[in-house]
Amino acid sequence: MRHQIIYTLLLITIPFRTYSQEKVTLSGIINMKTSTETIIGASIFIPGAKASTITNSYGFYSVTLPKGEYTVVISCVGFETIEEHIALTANTRKNFSMLEKSKNLNEVVVKYNGSASNIQKPEMSVNKLSISTIKKMPAVMGEVDILRGILQLPGVSNAQEGATGFNVRGGSVDGNLILLDEAVVYNTSHLFGFLSVFNADVIKDLKLYKGGIPANFGGRTSSVLDIYQKEGNNKTYHVTGGIGAISSRLSAEGPIVKDKSSFVVAGRTSYAHLFMKLADNPNSISFYDLNAKLNFKLNDNNRIFLSGYFGKDKMDFNNFFSNNYGNSFFNLRWNHIFSDKFFSNASVIYSKYDYGLKIKYVGIDWVSDIRNYNFKYDFSHHLSDKLVLNYGINSIYYQFNPGTIKPMDSTSAINPDQIEKKYAWENALYISAEQLTDKISLTYGLRYSYFLRLGEQHVNNYANNQAVLFNPELQIYEEGKPTSITYYNKNKKIIDFGNLEPRLAVSFALNDDQSIKASYNRMSQYIHLISNTASVSPLDIWAPSDQYLKPEILDQVALGYFRNFRNGKYSLETEAFYKKIENKADYIDGAELIAQKAIEQVLLNGEARAYGLEVMLKKNTGRLTGWLSYTLSKAEQRTPGRNAEEPGINNGKWYRANYDKTHNLSLTAAYQLTKKWSFGGIFTYQTGKAATYPIGKYQYQGITIANYGVRNANSLPAYHHLDLSATYTPKPDSKKRWKGEWVFSIYNVYGRNNAASLMFEQNKETGLSEAKRISIFGIIPGVTYNFKF
Question: Where is it localised (predicted)?
Fold first, then answer.
């Protein structure tokens, strides 16, 4: 505690020397001129004072300068640069409105930050994709997809063909904290990962943190994907939409009270299942989702936002079984400007993910869900032109329902059952500082997280506190038997955990075009995805940490070199990273996870590590833009025996994680041929994911049984495909309100049958064992008509 107090006092007292100078503060909001939509990450630069800052997640900026006259330069990707002369004699509130760049052949369409900003900022392992960039990528079935853009970044890969979610730097899917308007999204996919739940028509900004994660984020060990929805146009009404081969979308925005309040609402739905029915196809798959947001400007210092999302996927296979899953959330936010230097945001959030399964021939109806109630209050204090202090609190209450089991009808032999619900409470305090000098930029902070498991629940007790037993005769792990059961009343503490999580990122500018950056962060993860697959599936279950399922603790370091060439026309980013995770859950062979009432009986705690090198070369301007990203990495885990007699998993040796991809290459390009025609292409190559193959077989009572080798010693075939798209805009210079374009796309142009898995079976004619590749997607053409008015 004494060190924490000293640390805090140092942060607060550093800027006091500057207060003796005659200084004033320039602050305000930066928004779009046509809609007053606030702009995130706009750069404010004052050349005469060599001072700069950027707008926060709500468009607010603040910079402190000596009294005097200055030229203020404001820039942001996709907008016209503003230069304005200002005389500062007192604290000044000044809002700026930026005009979007008109479309031309030399438009900047791929750029993450300004050429100086990406060199000087201490941010590293961070990628920001503009919506204009994503919309230039090839569209699957004509549908622009945000997660496909994320997958083209270094250090990011998908688990496999048809899998949902993504892996970052050798981390598991549940290690990604995915936020939409600050609300947690637990499953990001529609149609088995073919599309994401994020409708690009209503997305305003997104940023992916792979390392150097700021102290205001916590609860995961791999990455943070922070996405914000549009706030709505408070000046005029607009409608945007698209009609595609398997789905369509429509969004509308406009003022409720002009210049005071606005709304945006968007919906998508698929209808491929209707065509299946017409063709007498017994299978059916469909989805729909709805986004909405309200924005109220009470006065210059107060704004209220209400946003929400609801989505659902439904699948029915041959009238054999059906599956459905979906996300929903609501968020009420309050932005308040206390002063020219002091900004706050308070949020109250409800989030839910539910998933269910009906097996018709058995007559079982199984439903599970996870819900959380979240309160967060964040403050940003611009103490001086060189120091910004951020601090806040976060409190999340969880409710886990592992499974409600019901009979489908009166003829079913299934007995109703409710697997005990679980409850937990996660709290956090954080403080961080952003400090600038001429050559060195720093971001450093500390987060304290506290996790509390709560009743009401029956908790199993085991001999020697071991829920998994080792059978020395068979040399296998087996489920333990409880010796007693303890009941905890509602809100009674079962167990608690607390962790300090320091964060540090530093940038040293060699010159205006080159910098070296380094970062370190520790993070704790208290909730876990109970899954022995490489990706999220609709039936995976989330569970809280307890005395058996320990919290994961991550330590990650990274070192990078950044350079701009030819005035920012080209840029190079290289990073090396190393991360290790304590208490990585591992499952015993043959573990059954579905409807598991005592998950502790099939898991052991081990460790994980990942390390690698990432390279990204970008061309930012001109007709041809894009980037080449390459990642060389290794992801491993190890679960040693608990004593000298136990072998652990794979004899306690390091083995490949399910999501290990040694090589990951992506080439993304966009070409503006004319004002009417533009083209996009993506080529992706990844090492095949880890797999376990049988090494022999034996007969037992007339049944052939496969004998498998050590875990993940093999690999699926390499994963690669090429996607192309062409966009045709019939009247690009039309002054009419109605604007339309046609998008033609081909997914997997050369028809690569990428393996989702391999199935081993005996050939009925030859009697020999053989492996069959199971592929999900072949060549998929698509066409969509997009419109806006």
Answer: Cell outer membrane
For 633, list phi and psi in degrees, rounded to 5: -150, 170
Helix (H) or strand (E) holding 11: helix 2-13
Q: What is the largest CA-CA distance in the chain?
A: 93
Q: Are 297 and 37 in contact (CB under 8 A)?
A: no
643-671 pLDDT, tens digit per residue, is 888 998 988 999 999 889 999 999 999 89
Residue ranges of domains in the chain, CATH in brackets: 23-102 (2.60.40.1120), 126-788 (2.40.170.20)
- Alpha carbon distance 686, 702 (integer Å): 41
- The 10s digit of each residue's pLDDT in 481-503 is 999 999 999 999 999 999 999 99
Is the Cβ–Cβ distance between 296 and 332 less than 8 Å?
Answer: no
Average pLDDT, the chain: 85
How many whole angstroms separate alpha carbon 50 and alpha carbon 424? Answer: 48
Task: Indicate if the alpha-carbon torsion angle 685, 687, 692, 698 is positive or negative.
Answer: positive
> For the CA atoms of the chain, what is the radius of gyration?
27
The answer to which of 242-251, 696-705, 727-736 has the lowest mean pLDDT is: 696-705
Phi, psi of 5 (to 5 degrees): -65, -45
Q: Which residues have a Cβ under 8 Å from the Cβ of 172 and sit 6 or more positions away?
A: 222, 529, 657, 658, 659
**Cα–Cα distance, 591 to 594 (Å, whole number):** 9
Exposure string over 634-651, b if 16+ CB within 10 A, otherwise e: ebbbbbbeeeeebbbbbe
For residues 358-376, give the mean pLDDT.
88
